[in-house]
Each structure stands twice: as structure tokens, then as C-alpha cells.
Amino acid sequence: MTTFLLIFLLLQLIIIQECSSINDEETPFPIRNLTYSILNESTKLKPSETLAAFQYAFDQWSAVIPRDFVEIPFNPKKPANIRIKFETGLTDEQFFNSSLISYNSPNGTMYFNDDISFKKYTVGEKMDPEILDFKWIVMHVIGHLLGLKHSFKSESVMHAIYVSTTDSDGRYINPKLAAIKKTKIRWPNRTITFSIFNDSKSLTRNDTKAAFQYAFDQWSAVIPRDFVEIPFNPKKPANIRIKFETGLTDEQFFNSSLISYNSPNGTMYFNDDISFKKYANDEKVNLSKKDITWIAMHTIGHVLGLDDYEKHRSIMYPVYLLSIESDNVYRDQKLTMYDILFVRDIYGPRNY
Length: 352
Description:
The chain is an alpha/beta fold. The chain has two domains: 23-184, Collagenase (Catalytic Domain); 191-347, Collagenase (Catalytic Domain) (3-Layer(aba) Sandwich), CATH 3.40.390. Helix content is 24%, strand content 16%. It has helices at 3-19, 47-62, 134-145, 205-220, 292-303, 337-347; strands spanning 33-38, 68-71, 82-87, 102-104, 109-113, 118-119, 132-133, 191-196, 226-229, 240-245, 260-262, 267-271, 276-277, 290-291. The strands form four sheets. The protein has a five-stranded mixed β-sheet with strand order 2-1-3-5-4, covered by helices on one side. Strand 1, helix 2 and strand 2 form a beta-alpha-beta unit. Helix 2 (47-62) packs across helix 3 and helix 4 packs across helix 5 (292-303). It is elongated, with a radius of gyration of 22 Å. This is Peptidase metallopeptidase domain-containing protein.
């Protein structure tokens, strides 16, 4: 069997895996024919480019599942199954899961952030790293609309972080459901800076710095990224900002049991209504004080693009889980095999 045939079969398997979770019981669209309407125009795209991008994206999904997507004129009295809308001035909370690029509401409306620069690229065109690929974004959001969650596979169009499809010369390739050949990930630079915006009520500055340095070092040891602390400067902010706040709500901490939350713009928030502590190895644990090191490592994982997953003892376990011995003695937090595999799927291994 040739190498080409093996690659072809692998891509087909990924397509099947990607689409196998779509079924009539789970999808919000059990009918065969689905209509869609474009409610308004983007300031970044010509109407013909917008229409062509959506037609291409819907066609990719339609080719592998029993659904047909048909455009109809916008009619507020008889709305389409799927509505497409471009908006500006949208907040982090409205785009909490898609890096401020796009968002689909449960009622079938897809919102696209028109404050973002995106473009409908043509095949072979040299890509501008500052201008996002609109076709990829559309395909990704349609996947969510059909019921799919994020994938850890960097070649998947449902990858948790925006990626663009290019050849080795940086020229555009049409995105396919299972053919992301070259990824441009959230943190493409080798060195990533971070700043501590303010202090916690329950931690000394030295303990805070030591906990975050340890947490960043654990991730840096397994991927080709270096994390460097710089002084806080609002005029020249670090890539990652660390902030302790009080009075935060459930909505702001929807995914982390009111302990911590990272916004799509790179700010990590920690709920300072909770009592934190930086434990030392072999120290007796006070269960009323949360381990800031574990929480920092977990939240950094999200900043790097990882989702929660149900692997016991994993740093990315969705529930706060302290590493202690049977005699209630603290043990230094370490990444598990799963944490390492998943983060390397995004960034690759570290080769010193």
C-alpha cells in the first residue's frame, strides 16, 4: 500500500469520526432540508464573497451528512432555520468560546464579529497573518450549530483554536473537514510574556509569582514555548495578564466552579472571594484554602487551547482536584500523560 493511499485512508477516517457524532436525535435540525438567510452584510466582505463563503462551507458539511442547505431571502415573518448576522461591539462574554471571532446562539442565529478582520481567500493567494480566513470560521461555526464540540485534533475544522490552511509557502488552501495541513495557532511565537496585574488578598506577591512561574514551567517543559514575566504596562500589555477580582458571577465563571476564568483576549481572572494558598511539598493541606498552583496550571491549559476532559488526576479535569497523600500531605502538581499529549497535539513536542 502506497504512502499516498495510507494518507488518503487516514483523512477519510478523520472525516467519519468528525461527522459520526451528528445524528437526528442530538442535532437541533432533524429535517433533511435546512434553509439559511444572510441578515446583513459585513463591512469586510463583498456580498458575493459572503455568499460564496457560506455556500462553500455548507457544501462541505452537506457532502458528508444527509442534510441539504438552501439559501432563501431574509423574511422576519418566516425566518430561515439558520440566520447569519454580522455585528460589532460584542463583548468577551458573548464570544466566550470562540476567541471573539464568531458565536452561534441556541436559536439558530450565527453571529460574526465584524470588528475582526477576515477575508475570503482564493486558492494560491498569499495569506496575511493579521486577516483571518472567513471560510474556515464559517465551517467551524456550522459544525457547532450541527451539534459538534471542539476537537483536540489540529487537522480538524473543529479544532478549539483558529487555524488557517496554507501550503509550505504560506499560500492559501481551501479548508476541508479533515485537512488542516499547516496550523497557525493562538500563540505562534516561541516566547510568550505574562504580567501579574494585581495581588490576591490571600497570597503574598512572592507566593503568587512563585506559583505562576512553577505553573508556566510545567507547560513549557513539554511544548516549544517559553513564558517570561514582564512588569505590568497598560500601554504595552503582556500576552497573558493575571488578575484577581471579587464579586464575580456564575456567568463569568461558567466553566470552572467559580475559581478561575480566562477570557479570549488572554486575561486570566481568579476569584479573590476564594481563599488561596501556595502549598509546599510535604506540607499539611488546609482544605478550606484552594491550591493556587493547581488552579494556575489548569487555567493556563485553557489559555493554551485545551478544554476540560474527564481524565482522573489530569490538570484539565473539570473539577478542582488537589494532589495529596492519604495523610493529607501536599504533593507538587504535575502534568499527566493526557495533559502532555493534548497540548502537544496543538504545539508539538519541545526539542531543546
